[in-house]
Amino acid sequence: MSASGDRGIRNNNPGNIRHVSGVTWQGEAETQTDPAFVQFVDPVYGIRAIVRIMHSYQREGLKTVMEIINRWAPPNENNSTAYVAAVASSIGCRPTDPLNFDTVMPLLVEAIILHENGSQPYTEDQISRGIALAA
């Protein structure tokens, strides 16, 4: 679990996506009181942001849990080995197996949320809506 704990849940940002200068997300809250992490108006938009980032990784040629998580949660800031192992286990694959993003996206999103927050409180419908909004 990241140091931010339930901060991602409070911010409707279950992926703990950081602010990036010049980047505004769909569904981003008008008032941003967290100096480090984006705050969304609804968790569905935070889920959408996770999926949008995963799609960008896919376009860049990242294909495995190991490649994705090492980019998402760099080893210089995280215990990426544990993160990779947890996500691969949740998805039911090896860290170096190529992923079919369309098939695995709901499980990938849920695994990231669980690892980032220590819980995954969102419904299947919320996850599905976030994925659909990312299309």
Structure description:
The protein has helices at 7-10, 43-59, 65-72, 80-91, 101-117, 124-133. It is built from 6 helices and no strands. It starts with 6 loop residues before the first helix and ends with a helix. The protein has one domain (7-133). With 135 residues, the protein is mainly α.
Find the count of extended strands (DSSP E, 2+ residues).
0
Rg value:
14 Å
Q: What is the total domain count? A: 1
Helicity, as a percent range:
40-55%
| Sheet with most strands | none
Which band does the percent of strand residues land in? Answer: under 5%
Return the structural class. Answer: mainly alpha
Globally, the shape reads globular
Protein topology:
Elements: H1 7-10, H2 43-59, H3 65-72, H4 80-91, H5 101-117, H6 124-133
Task: Give me some keywords for this one.
135 residues; mainly alpha; 6 helices; 0% strand; globular
What is this structure, in a nutshell?
This protein has 135 residues and is mainly α. It has helices at residues 7-10, 43-59, 65-72, 80-91, 101-117, 124-133.
